[in-house]
Specification:
Elements: E1 11-14, H1 22-29, E2 32-37, H2 41-44, H3 47-57, E3 61-65, H4 74-86, E4 91-96, H5 98-110, E5 133-137, E6 149-154, E7 159-164, E8 172-175, H6 185-205, H7 212-234, H8 239-252, H9 267-279, H10 283-298, H11 303-314, H12 319-332, H13 347-357, H14 367-376
Parallel strand pairs: 1-8, 2-3, 2-4, 4-5, 5-8
Antiparallel strand pairs: 6-7
Helix pairs in contact: 1-3, 4-5, 6-7, 6-8, 6-10, 7-8, 7-11, 9-10, 9-13, 10-12, 10-14, 11-12, 13-14
Length: about 375
């Protein structure tokens, strides 16, 4: 095992009905917040009103930034920064899933920054200070509620990049499984793919092959998500399954499964971000297309790990069987597994984008390698 520093200061408040603890936690952070929400569901479901009622109990005022879309855009970040400064807020409350939380993080960082907030996403500037962030999680997928990562898309340059910094850790994240029960089957499926992808990136590409503890964490998360997702496909209102997936999501990208594994690569995410940037497809759907193809391309040079994956996750005997089983799971839950699902054909342009963005991930991928992966997922 490699040496490491593990730091995760997020206070997690987990359980059914925990949305009602918002008031007591919010008042400890500040007196006026910028609330960031998505497009319709949070208001339609009544979650927004519950949050406002809680804030009113402790006289925390707010201004509202809404209509954050999936694959969140930098323009809404600029709008949020302007609103936050104009109204002198002292913290940000994100009510939603990964896109909302990532936008809130970008606004929090941009609040104190004199330059363009996009600088953080192209490695032009480091995040040294940010407004405090509080989260009410409504979609369990990205793990953004328990990490210091933000992913934002910039349509003007066709890039979807990530930024990271300690100030972006939320102060408090409320994880109330009941808030996720209205999520559609499609987005439940895409969310599960996303969770699985977060742990598999490090599992397969770690430079250290002697990481039995971390491998066990990863395998447990993958098995749990598969098992509980099948249950949700039959009964979307199964709160026990929603609970298990919600906690798996938070743990998956919290640093917990990768502490001590050394350097690792996030190649699947790099490739998928090009698909999102050009075609605006759901992130999890893009990953379910990329992952099986990436696995088939890399199975020989990572054969021992793929055999371990097949045996410990699916009780299968060969690496190929393990890959087929994870691909079958994606198909079973109606997550796409081919580019043709979205009529994606401009491989050259996508490849150019991936090569251009690779340095922001610390990666250097060849054109032939990327094209082979795309060929496998046509």
């Amino acid at each position: 095992m490699n040496g490491f520093i593990f730091y995760n200061p997020v206070k997690i408040v987990f359980g059914n009905g925990k949305i009602n603890s918002l008031a007591s936690d919010a008042i400890q952070i500040g007196k006026k917040c910028l609330i960031v929400i998505g497009q319709k569901s949070v208001k339609k479901s009544g979650i927004f009103d519950k949050c406002i009622n809680n804030l009113n109990k402790v006289s925390v005022s707010y201004v509202l930034l809404e209509n954050i879309q999936p694959n969140p855009r930098i323009e809404k970040v600029y709008e949020g920064i302007e609103m936050a400064k104009k109204n002198s807020v002292d913290f940000i409350l994100a009510i939603g899933g990964g896109s909302v939380i990532d936008t809130a993080k970008a606004i929090a960082a941009g609040f104190y920054y004199e330059g363009d907030a996009w600088d953080f996403y192209i490695m032009r500037s480091e995040i040294k200070k940010a407004l405090p962030i509080m989260v009410i999680l409504t979609v369990a997928a990205t793990g953004s509620e328990m990490n210091s990562i933000s992913v934002i898309q910039n349509d003007s340059v066709r890039q979807k990049n990530s930024a990271q910094g300690y100030p972006l850790f939320p102060k408090v994240s409320i994880l109330d499984p009941e808030l996720t029960k209205t999520l559609s089957k499609d987005y439940t499926a895409y969310a599960s793919v996303d969770i699985i992808s977060h742990v598999l990136e490090g599992y397969f590409t770690s430079e250290d092959e002697n990481t039995p503890l971390q491998d066990g964490f990863t395998e447990s998360i993958v098995k749990t998500v598969i098992q509980e997702t099948y249950k949700l496909m039959l009964n979307p209102l199964n709160i026990e399954s929603r609970s298990n997936i919600m906690w798996a999501s938070s743990l998956a990208l919290s640093g917990f499964t990768t502490a001590g594994i050394g350097r690792f690569k996030f190649e699947n995410h790099l490739i998928e971000h090009a698909l999102s940037a050009y075609y605006d497809i759901p992130h999890g759907a893009g990953l379910s297309i990329v992952i099986p193809a990436w696995m088939k391309e890399n199975r020989e040079k990572m054969k021992r790990k793929f055999e371990k994956f097949a045996k410990n996750i699916f009780n299968s005997k060969t690496a190929d069987e393990g890959i087929l089983r994870i691909e079958s799971f994606f198909k079973d839950i109606n997550a796409p597994t081919s580019l043709s699902h979205y009529k994606i054909t401009n491989i050259k342009e996508l490849t150019d984008n991936i090569i251009e963005c690779a340095p922001t991930r610390g990666l250097n991928l060849t054109r032939d390698y990327i094209e082979r992966i795309f060929e496998r997922c046509k």
